[in-house]
Design a protein that fits this description.
4 helices; mainly alpha; about 80% helix
Length: about 100
């Protein structure tokens, strides 16, 4: 494997684990939120975080597949992945 392919594989694994973690936390949050009203204030930001994380995961998988198979569109997929991760970082820095 080429080094860039390995890098995108690591990025894909990180995105998948972050998406799974956010989805699991949202599920736990939804179950527990009724018992403490302070927890209910954080629920509106969770769907946006899950969408941002899922889109980063989808684009990272496209980048990984494009890099693995040396597709001509892989450069665009890499740019889209970088943009999605940048938007996700911006989302988490604003909404914490």
């Amino acid at each position: 494997m080429r080094p860039l392919t390995v890098l995108f594989g690591i990025l894909l694994g990180t995105c998948v684990s972050a998406t799974f973690t956010l989805a699991a936390l949202a599920l736990i949050w939804a179950v527990v939120a009724h018992s403490d009203p302070r927890l209910a204030t954080g629920i509106p930001h969770r769907p946006g975080a899950i969408v941002a994380s899922f889109s980063s995961t989808a684009l990272a998988s496209l980048s990984f597949i494009g890099q693995l198979r040396s597709r001509p569109w892989r450069g665009l997929a890499h740019l889209a992945t970088a943009a999605a991760i940048g938007v996700g970082v911006l989302w988490f820095s604003i909404h914490g």
